[in-house]
Amino acid sequence: MRVIAGTARGTKLECPPGDEVRPTPDMARQALFNILQEVVSGATVLDIFAGVGTVGIEALSRGAARCVFVERSPKHAKFLKRNLERTHFTGRADLLVRDALRCTEGIAGMGHSFDIVFAGPPFPLLREPAGRVALLALLDELADRRLLKPGCVVILQHDARDPIPESTARLRGTDRRRYGRNVFTLYEA
Questions:
Q1: Cα dihedral 66→70→76→77 (10° resolution)
Q2: How confident is residue 37, by pLDDT bands cut at 50, 70 and 90?
Q3: What total number of domains does the chain contain?
């Protein structure tokens, strides 16, 4: 797994062995950043369920000004920190080691508002109705707390079989793209 483009292009990223982490595949990540190419430069990015940081690091490599990573696993957070060091992005990153579904207060305390929000939860979370409701409520809460800048792009990565709504209480669906098993549903506040 490598950074695809930008200043850290080609840098290999570390990931724990096995299937504990499901990094966004290169093809899907490339397609995502083709969609975001007009907004990523200078953006403040929130990467929820960050894992080892592949999406947020890709955004930083492509010119995002700052990225806040939220990852609940201390083990995965160690890999993420090493990947930030390896790509020389530690000065432009904040890491919140906390359950993503309970992170809004911690994020609000950092004082950032976001141009791009990426949520790549574990696919099983979205298969459970309660998990799906909690995640969509989290995205709405980010909007309620005014953590999303006007025109903020919110991307939810999910399995093609997951019943994800086109809109939420605070977010309007703008696009949906499928790349194999991975689907990106895009919202705007």
A1: 60
A2: very high
A3: 1
